[in-house]
Amino acid sequence: MTTPSVPLVPQHAELPHARPGPLTRPFWDGCAAGELRFQRCRACRNAQFPAAEVCRDCLGRDLAWERGAGTGTLYSWTVVHRPVTPAFEVPYAPAIVDLDEGYQMMTNLIGIAPEAITPDLPVEVEFHKTGDALYLPYFRPRATVS
Ligand SMILES: [Zn+2]
Known about the structure:
single chain; globular; 8 strands; mainly beta
């Protein structure tokens, strides 16, 4: 299969996804406001995502939401040509990003052609609305690297 040399784009259709609940509502509200939010443990300072009732490092329950910078580096990715469901437009690139605050997030890459993706690529978040009004965080190559 030939990989197209056009930049990846956000999905346009309504996608299957988790519904925001009491635990995850601050994250989804942040996405709608253009903020990438994560939890930080007040006891051990561990940054974590996705949201949980307890700290994954010390099991403490004193967790607070923080706004992240939305920047990080690419840890791993794949390029999908055969979607899990017909709702997904191909190709798309699921990815794991190392956020600068010290946690990882599963996301999708946009704004780069599949063959141009490289390990440790500096990336930044960009929010796009799905078909049903939920905003999803995508990551694209960082415009300027400090
Ligand atoms: Zn902790």
